[in-house]
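Field log, afternoon session.

UNIT: design team B
ACTIVITY: writing a sequence onto a fixed backbone
BACKBONE:
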């Protein structure tokens, strides 16, 4: 059991659960999905996210040791002695995920899982993270592809509701992560990672966060405006959106680490409530 525990941090299980929940929301938004397909979607999405996370650990091991919040990761402490273990675990998990989803679900699910993992492990981690403040904007597509994978599990035809929710996920990521980056900006600066708060002031970052969140809330209302989701979802989206915007305004007025952390937690609350409202609206009121 101890041997298993030492590998678990490689897989960023909390992120994997969030990504998998997003895929489930996408599948429910697209239509009725049999329980066996939902189970396969959960397994393959978890594996894809865990595999991409292991590759992230492998690629970032040189800068992880420079930051307090990542300095205790298995590869930096030597708890997992060989970095190649993370590399091969990541590759095996991804190949298994893509293969099972291709054979047991369909090619679009497999393609979207591949694209999500590729964006996170290659485009974000290897290419953009150390080069551009756009890193998290483009990297946010990884979560969007999870929603699309879920939608594809219900239908391989073009289905607009999952696409609209994937756009919501895309806008959510910068507001979420830039708040986190304000809290940890000195660590990112030390590691040479150009997150937005490293390059500009916290107050200007708060302006970007607020602007992005306005687009996020507007995008969240579109599925209801087009009739894909009902009044329960619309009321929830407006209410939780107003809450998140108020938190953003508080951060703009007081761009401190404490308020940034509150905004970060508010972003988690926002997405959990919004996506739960999708499920409740469709399963209860449709």
């Amino acid at each position: 059991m101890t041997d298993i525990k030492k590998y678990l941090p490689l897989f960023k299980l909390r992120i994997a659960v969030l990504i998998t929940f997003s895929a489930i929301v996408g599948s429910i938004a697209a239509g009725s999905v049999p329980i066996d397909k939902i189970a396969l979607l959960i397994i393959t999405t978890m594996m894809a996210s865990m595999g991409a996370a292991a590759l992230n650990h492998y690629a970032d091991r040189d800068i992880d040791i420079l930051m307090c919040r990542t300095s205790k990761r298995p590869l930096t402490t030597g708890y997992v002695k060989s970095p190649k273990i993370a590399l091969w675990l990541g590759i095996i998990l991804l190949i298994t995920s893509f293969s099972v989803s291709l054979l047991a679900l369909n090619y679009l699910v497999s393609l979207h899982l591949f694209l999500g993992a590729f964006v996170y492990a290659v485009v974000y981690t290897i290419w953009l993270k150390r080069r551009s403040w756009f890193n998290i904007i483009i990297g946010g597509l990884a979560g969007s592809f999870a929603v699309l994978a879920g939608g594809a599990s219900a239908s391989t035809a073009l289905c607009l509701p999952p696409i609209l929710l994937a756009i919501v996920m895309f806008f959510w990521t910068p507001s979420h992560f830039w708040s986190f980056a304000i809290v940890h900006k000195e660590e990112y600066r030390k590691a040479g990672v150009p997150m937005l708060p490293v390059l500009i002031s916290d107050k200007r970052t708060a302006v970007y966060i607020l602007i992005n969140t306005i687009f996020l809330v507007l995008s969240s209302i579109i599925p209801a405006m087009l009739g894909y989701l009902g009044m329960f979802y619309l009321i929830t989206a407006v209410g939780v959106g107003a809450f998140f915007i108020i938190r953003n305004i508080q951060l703009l007025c007081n761009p401190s680490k404490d308020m940034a952390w509150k905004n970060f937690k508010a972003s988690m609350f926002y997405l959990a409530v919004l996506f739960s409202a999708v499920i409740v609206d469709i399963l209860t009121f449709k």
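LOG NOTE: Residues 54 and 90 are 5 Å apart (CA to CA).
NEXT ACTIVITY: expression trials, pending approval
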